[in-house]
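FAQ

Q: What does a record look like?
A: Structure on top, sequence underneath. For example:
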């Protein structure tokens, strides 16, 4: 690991508008069925503009992100293909793709752009239609169901092709960090199971209150239908079987269609728009190839160190944490690595309900990947959308207890990238 460093921005940058579409399977939603990727992206972009109180002509430049546009949308240059859908034909733009880290990279690129002075008002958005695939020779609104046989071979694209990929080897390592943690701090398998089930439970409690979430049926209701009096009995039962050594079905993130966008501008002009500005204080970054053991732990630690040093903040200054938890255990493990929870003790905080949206150390108040849904490239941008709502006090019934001033987001994915922004509300 070679340590990195980030400096201070040449000028402060703030988020002035956000927008997001519901996450889910458009093929099963009559209100969304038939929408193309361009329409999905464009809808979120127009929402963000309305949120900021600006028009398409006010956008100077935009960034388009998706995890895998060729696979999911048969598009090689999707940024140019979506411009027609939100009124920016001819505007400069860039497409980028960093798998599940795409949304966080999208924010960083927009902020760097404005901080450099190149542009004043920049839109950055991400979209993924991950529940289906294009039908060859047919218009984009016609899609077919995706299968495991379709997606599994494509996962090899996030591995180093030199050796392991050529042999068909490699793994995502869903249990790697959790197994290390369990052995280091002396947890039993049943304790790990209880911790992960508790995370699933509180994630669903939040998602029930979130109109954009994919899964909104309370576990109490599901448990009752299956003959259980207690939802935790259901979560630890054979009706919720393990899919890895530790993860159960409800601890796996369901693939979703989704999109989200943010708009940024120089902080000095941010107060002239409709909403309370949210300043982006910095973004720490680190990358390690997928096959390196414990890579998620290392790059989370390094990215966090960078952004703490650049901003002068400490873990106790963070009021809210959002974590890319398509591997559910990441929610706990990243929180400890960043100092948001005490090292080796965070699992107890989970069991006490302290990391729930209504706890004193909230994580993922939108429901997390396992209930909100996972639209790959768009998920990180949806995290940013949620953080902005929480910092503005606009999250409705899932608004966290403490009036938050500062939020940290741990983005991760793509074999493997880690981007960690810190956001702060401007009064």
């Amino acid at each position: 690991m070679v340590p990195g460093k980030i400096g201070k921005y040449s000028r402060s940058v703030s988020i002035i508008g956000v927008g997001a579409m519901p996450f889910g399977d458009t093929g099963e939603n009559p209100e969304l069925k038939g929408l193309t990727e361009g329409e999905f992206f464009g809808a979120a972009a127009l929402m963000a503009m309305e949120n900021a109180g600006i028009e398409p002509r006010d956008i100077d430049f935009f960034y388009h992100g998706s995890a895998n546009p060729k696979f999911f949308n048969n598009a090689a240059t999707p940024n140019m293909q979506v411009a027609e859908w939100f009124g920016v034909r001819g505007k400069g733009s860039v497409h980028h793709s960093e798998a599940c880290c795409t949304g966080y990279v999208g924010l960083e690129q927009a902020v760097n752009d404005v901080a450099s002075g190149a542009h004043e008002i920049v839109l950055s958005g991400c979209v993924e239609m991950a529940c289906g695939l294009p039908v060859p020779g047919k218009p984009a609104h016609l899609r077919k169901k995706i299968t495991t046989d379709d997606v599994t071979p494509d996962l090899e694209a996030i591995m180093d092709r030199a050796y392991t990929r050529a042999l068909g080897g490699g793994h995502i390592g869903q249990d790697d960090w959790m197994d290390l943690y369990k052995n280091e701090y002396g947890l039993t398998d049943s304790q790990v199971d209880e911790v992960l089930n508790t995370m699933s439970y509180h994630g669903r409690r939040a998602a029930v209150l979130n109109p954009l979430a994919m899964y909104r049926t309370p576990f109490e209701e599901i448990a009752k239908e299956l003959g259980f009096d207690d939802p935790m009995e259901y979560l630890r039962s054979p009706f919720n079987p393990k899919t890895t050594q530790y993860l159960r079905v409800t601890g796996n993130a369901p693939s979703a269609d989704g999109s989200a966008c943010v708009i940024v501008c120089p902080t000095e002009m941010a107060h002239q728009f409709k909403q309370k500005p949210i300043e982006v204080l910095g973004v720490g970054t680190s990358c390690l190839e997928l096959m390196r053991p414990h890579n998620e732990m290392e790059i989370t630690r390094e990215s966090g160190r960078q952004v703490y040093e650049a901003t002068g903040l400490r873990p106790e200054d963070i009021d809210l944490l959002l974590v890319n938890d398509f591997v559910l255990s990441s929610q706990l493990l990243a929180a400890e690595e960043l100092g948001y929870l005490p090292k080796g003790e965070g699992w107890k905080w989970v069991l006490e309900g302290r990391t729930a949206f209504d706890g004193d150390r909230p994580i993922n108040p939108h429901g997390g990947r396992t209930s909100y849904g996972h639209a790959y490239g768009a998920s990180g941008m949806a995290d940013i959308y949620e953080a902005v709502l929480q910092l503005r006090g606009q999250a409705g019934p899932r608004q966290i207890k403490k009036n938050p001033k500062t939020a940290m987001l741990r983005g991760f994915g793509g074999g493997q990238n880690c981007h960690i922004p810190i956001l702060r509300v401007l009064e």
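Q: Is there anything notable about this one?
A: The two ends are 39 Å apart (CA to CA).
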